[in-house]
Amino acid sequence: MKSASAGILLAAAATIAQAAAPSTTAATVKIEGGRIEGRVEDGVRAFRGIPFAAPPVGALRWQAPQPVRPWQGVRQAGDFGNRCLQLPLFSDMVFRSPAASEDCLYVNVWAPAKAAAKKLPVLVYFHGGGLVTGDGSEPRYEGAAMARQGIVALTVNYRLGVFGFLAHPGLTAESRHKASGNYGLMDQAAALAWVKKNIAAFGGDPAQVTIAGESAGSYSVSAQMIMPMSKGLFARAIGESGSVLGRRGAPPLAEAEQQGVAFAQSLGLATLQDLRAAPAEALLQAQGKPDAPRFGIVTDGHVLDRAPLDSYTAGRQAPVPLLAGWNSQEMHAGAILDNQEPTPERFQAVLQKFYGAEAAEAARVYDYDVADAARDLSGDRWIVYGTWKWIDLHAKAAPTWRYYYTRPRPATVDGQPAAAGAVHSAEIEYAMSNLDGNKVYAWTDDDRAVSRTMQAYFANFIRQGDPNGAGLPAWPRVSRAGANVMRLDVQSGAYDPKDRARFEFHDRQFARP
């Protein structure tokens, strides 16, 4: 996730706080665990902070999510639950949750206030944040606008960082599956199982669930599609910028266990009992040290029973319709040019550093305006190639639609100029129709038009597994030759980016030992 202007986030947070208490009436439903009472807000029933699993604390730290503990009476579901433990990393994240805690396994549900004649399609959105930060309470993920489109929308919290993805030999030994790590992915799967059992109480159809996410959320979607435990829990998938098929992928369990042992030893924790007894804050702070390992998705042999690339290459993923793509400036050129101006000489030096004897081939596939080429290479190496690979492989198994989002955010309300391109995460407010929840930017009529178009495509896909609909430019499947990528902007339309050579070059690099 990319940072926004930090100086004006206090104003945004204040506005969000003012907007958090609209005039409401109560709404009550019965679900697994007991009865909950939410609020009716502007034609939408909102239920926040619903537990979908037992708090993963104490002996349940680094365990698979356990069933919800029933409650007596009516549980209030008007406010968000805790966000999962995390360090403050990105200034564009604005949380409405009360605190960060290990007790954080909650979902939030938005549904139309009026009962529908038939069960409604469902959207389950996984937040981004690099698997180390983020929360379902962020205003950009608000589900009310989707609910007004006749969709039951949910956001999901899942364990993050060391709490969600630590692998360790002690954890592996105690597991009946002889696996460890991926607790955050198990949380997501548990939330999907909860949706299957409970979403009808909110008017949703458990047979019409779309999973979606951006960045780490998109990585999560691509992982859920190959997880045996998630089979049959969703019918469609949306991925915005990211997949488990990138350069890092999902390392093997043995490698992740070594990192876990080194992390524990750095804290003087010799046993699994010591790790579970350690204060959560101590683990969190240690995770933030420069030499700490990066905790992420692992090929553990259970949650992911084989390497993601092997699963997708063999066509073992869920054969569901997929809508996925990325933004025009996922990473800036300076990230590979030491923040210097892009010149042909500097770009050539970077190609030589990265690719050595293959530099001439790299220069051939990135043979266009040097500023654009450096920007694209930077994004491709980070997150774009993996997203393309996911789309390319899945298109062989099921209907797939690819987008390229190019609308830059406008100038900020304090006068900072518009961005040069569509940066990482910029599309979320547009797709979810939540521009008004972000007070940082001076949204224009063009921005609102882009949002209406993008939300319409997403809503159509959630309803029917196809983004096309009345009044929208035709969006062909990836399998059609030629112009088959939808450019999403003020003037949207299908075009042929002629970028396959770029990604096939990275394919060859990725295949090297």
Describe the structure.
- The protein is of the alpha/beta class.
- It has helices at 9-19, 144-147, 161-165, 169-174, 183-198, 216-224, 253-266, 272-277, 280-287, 308-313, 344-355, 359-365, 370-394, 428-431, 445-464, 500-511; strands spanning 25-31, 34-41, 44-51, 74-76, 83-84, 100-101, 106-112, 120-126, 152-156, 204-214, 236-240, 322-327, 400-405, 485-488, 493-495.
- It folds into 2 domains: 23-61 and 95-320, 3-Layer(aba) Sandwich (Rossmann fold), CATH 3.40.50.1820; 325-513, Rossmann fold, CATH 3.40.50.
- It is 32% helix and 16% strand.
- α11 crosses α12 (359-365).
- The chain is globular, with a radius of gyration of 22 Å.
- Residues 1-22 have low confidence and may be disordered.
- Residues 27-493 form the Carboxylesterase type B domain.
Total domains, how many?
A: 2
- Please tell me how large the radius of gyration is: 22 Å
DSSP strand count: 15
Q: Provide the CATH topology of the largest domain.
A: Rossmann fold
- Overall, the morphology is globular
GO molecular function, one term: hydrolase activity
Signal peptide: 1-19
Pfam families: COesterase
InterPro entries: AB_hydrolase_fold (IPR029058), CarbesteraseB (IPR002018), Carboxylesterase_B_AS (IPR019826), Carboxylesterase_B_CS (IPR019819), Type-B_Carboxylest/Lipase (IPR050309)
